[in-house]
Amino acid sequence: MPSPSVDEGLLAVREATEMAKDLNAQLVNLLDIAMKPDSSEESAAVDFAVMLFLQLGYAQRHRVSRTRKSIPLLICREWCHAKSDVCLVDVTQRDILLLVQEDKRYQPDEEHEPLPQLIAGAIAAFEYNNRIRKTAGLDALESKVREPCVHYTLTADSY
Predict the structure, then answer these.
(1) What CA–CA distances, in Å, run from 159 to 4, 24, 37, 59, 60?
(2) Mind listing the pLDDT tens digit for each residue in 43-98?
(3) Phi, psi at residue 106, to the nearest 5°?
């Protein structure tokens, strides 16, 4: 993916009310809402991630942000589905480029740890991408790592 382009207004101004551009104000407002979750409703973290991908130029033309994408994964000869909170998809190749999994432990009814969910989603996305590659007549990838971020290297032996 390209290096992100960040509007100077986001870097120079702290408060949404002082932003010159509406999109910058909307991103900062979503960040504020996401940082103070209301237990009676869904978090704004997903909305913030989608807007952030747009603002950074990651979601454009052939790359789109998807929310709640169900990614099929074969485990012990049984099909399961990993569900990402947000993922960035290359629609020309149908590849999943990036996953976002929200830490929902602030909600009392959520007992799931985000890291295992993210790892399962990454494995599912890796397998999904390789199935698409094989269908297109391309060789499967042995591994795929995106830098710089917290990541786990996925190899054919990972699962």
Answers:
(1) 32, 41, 34, 30, 32
(2) 788 999 999 999 888 888 899 999 988 888 888 888 988 888 899 999 998 888 88
(3) -70, -20
Backbone angles phi, psi at 2, to 5 degrees: -70, 160
Residue corresponding to tokens 């990541």 = 151
Q: pLDDT for 97-133, tens place per residue?
A: 888 888 766 555 656 666 777 788 888 888 888 888 8
Query: Angle at Cα 4 formed by Cα 119 and Cα 83, nearest 5°?
Result: 25
Contact 66/125 with Cβ under 8 angstroms? no
pTM attached to this predicted model: 0.71
